[in-house]
Write the structure tokens for this entry.
Amino acid sequence: MSSVLTDLFPHPIVQAPMAGGVSVPQLAAAVSDAGGLGFLAAGYKTADGMYQEIKQLRGLTSRPFGVNLFLPQPETADPAAVDVYAHQLAGEASWYETELGDPESCGDDGYDAKLAVLLDNPVPVVSFHFGVPAREVIDSLHRVGTLAFVTATTAEEARAVERVGADVVIAQGVEAGGHQGTHRDVPETDGSGIGLLSLVAQVRESVGIPIVAAGGIMRGGQIAAVCAAGASAAQLGTAFVAAHESGAHALHKQALTNPLFARTELTRAFTGRPARALVNRFLREHGPYAPAAYPEVHHLTAPLRKAAAKAGDAQGLALWAGQGHRMARELPAGQLVEVLAAELAAARTALSAGGAR
């Protein structure tokens, strides 16, 4: 593992920041205390809400951790298309006895305010999703001792990450659960993407900074594989959704291994941006018609998802999951890190023994 990362966490295991309530302080603390790198997700929170979670996490662990930010998105949504989708969702609102959300709510996710908090109260790592931050942002984080991680889904995006001075690129394969961290959202890319092992190899040949591999990783042997392909560490999200400390809804945790939810699919149904989720009724009925409109669709459907959770209806939830979801293990997060580290060590030993023959 790169020395940049070994100084932060001994095991090459990063807990993905999962917005929407999954990445709670208890989860991040348990992962960091076990030797991985825990993350908080600042997406969809206020700057003060993020700050309060950081304070809580610092009270739970003295180990390094990270905070993830969503970059503001260009205003490319077609308001007419959003209106049409809202009309289509009227039946859902009636069914769940709620109102649709305001699609114009907080388009930049409070990005500048959150950055100001993180510069005044530095954390070990800040990561970015949905684009590349300005070099001045990276430089300002470096001045306060914070490392910058940035997601990329292609070798071209990885080169852009390196050019702004980021310390680490998170190479996210198409297998990953939740939102694809593409730097540009264009409808033509729906359903396409590069598999993780191919992506890591391409990024390794394109940049000189350390790589954290993300996408469908559920076992230590997979961590060994991406490290052999050129990554310094692996980022796991779905694997930690089922952890005891995870803030995921119980229905979400159960759905990962429920035979009723047999597969995942990239969809715009819940947020207007491609994201991988377990296929349920809402995704099937609305995915084909959802416009490329993020975060407008996210805000539009938020009350529906909240009402579905309250009603105990998994068919109306955004069940974010990577392609390896059926391999989820319901364990305390710290124990999961230990199991993954043991599996990684065994896989590396097996590879070494095979090479010695």
Summary: The first strand starts at residue 13 and ends at 15. The chain has two domains: 3-73+108-249+327-352, 76-107+262-318. The chain has a mean pLDDT of 95.
